[in-house]
Amino acid sequence: MDNSAPADLAPAETATLARAVSRAPSVHNSQPWRLCVRGSDVDLVERTEIVLPRHDPEGRDRLLSCGAALANLQLAAQALRRDITTSFPSHGDVAATVHTRPGAAPARADLVRYRAIGRRRSYRREFASEPVDDVAQLLDTVEEPSVHAFAPASVGVLAEMLGFATRVFRSDAAYQRELETWTAHTFGRYALGAVDGVPEASFGDEPLPAAGLVRRTTPVPDDVRLAERLAAETLVVFCTDDDTRRAHLDAGVALQRMWLEATARGLAGSVLTQPLHLTGFREHLAERLGLPGLPQAIFRCGHPVSAAPPSPRLPLGELLAHDLPGRPE
Ligand SMILES: Cc1cc2nc3c(=O)[nH]c(=O)nc-3n(C[C@H](O)[C@H](O)[C@H](O)COP(=O)(O)O)c2cc1C
After folding, report:
1. Nearest residue CA, atom 2 of ligand 1?
2. Model confidence over 52-77: pLDDT tens digits?
3. Measuring from atom 10 of ligand 1, which residue has the nearest CA?
4. Is any atom of ligand 1 closer than 6 Å to the C-beta of 186?
5. Model confidence over 192-224: pLDDT tens digits?
6. Is 158 part of any domain?
7. Is 319 within the bounds of a domain?
8. C-beta of 162 in contact with ligand 1 (< 6 A)
9. Could you list the residue range(s) of the whole structural domain that residue 41 is in?
10. Structural domain contains residue 307
11. Helix 156-170 vs helix 223-231: angle between axes, to the nearest 10 degrees?
12. In angstroms, what is the span from residue 268 Cα to ligand 1's centroid?
């Protein structure tokens, strides 16, 4: 006999949620999350054992990634005709809990974004020259009061600072070792079994900003050339009022929602956080650009000229956490 309450999530619904979460972007494609379904509630659990001491020494990007996964989880629950509320425990490994109950069909904009989840990929290439229409509408996707999306009017300062960061990362041997560890060889003789990491084919060999992740061989354009490249792209800096765990999650949610909206509009994009982890970089950037808060991520988007390669994912079964120690009943 089935004793579950009618509001409980059925296995097929859980699979839909897990698929959506699995497709979220994450730092180095590390997928630092698990799901724990309890009746009609879903915990998004942060996998704090995933550490990137060189790229993400403070674990900020791990929480931003969980935020991106949370955006997908919320959209998927709504697509399943569930009304949702989200709570954010202040301690422990549960980043957020989405409480669901049977409800109405989602708003059209949310359904459109949900459907874009499977098509979104990191596009680390130059864009077509066609400009992005209605950037203001993209900026409007940010709903979180503590998150501010800022489109810089001029890119000279950004070019100068990104150029500097690129040169630092290129010659940082420990950083490069860590990046190599997180490079997924998705074809060729090392291809077997890659379930995480950034695929080799996704790096490309273009200079910044398209390079996204700087490797030893990444060409560094001079500041003038870099400024020209940046000026040809639509750039959005995601800032938050402070550096709390909640701020990082909110920034991740907002970033992913904008990325999905862009995808739904036929645009492509990628995220840069790498330079923001250099000591003092964010504070300096905030001051020089007059940013409305602390920068957490830079989103670049435009019209794609080709398809971006897919990246691997952990099997869905590994996403669904069971028997986590210390979980409340
Ligand atoms: C918080 C966060 C930080 C990221 N930082 C970078 C970055 O600095 N450079 C970059 O090229 N991609 C960055 N990415 C993109 C990830 O590498 C990408 O999402 C992951 O490899 C999965 O690939 P996909 O986006 O194509 O699904 C970041 C993504 C997130 C969520």
Report:
1. 27
2. 999 999 999 999 999 999 999 999 99
3. 212
4. no
5. 678 999 998 888 788 888 888 999 999 888 999
6. yes
7. no
8. no
9. 11-119
10. no
11. 120
12. 13
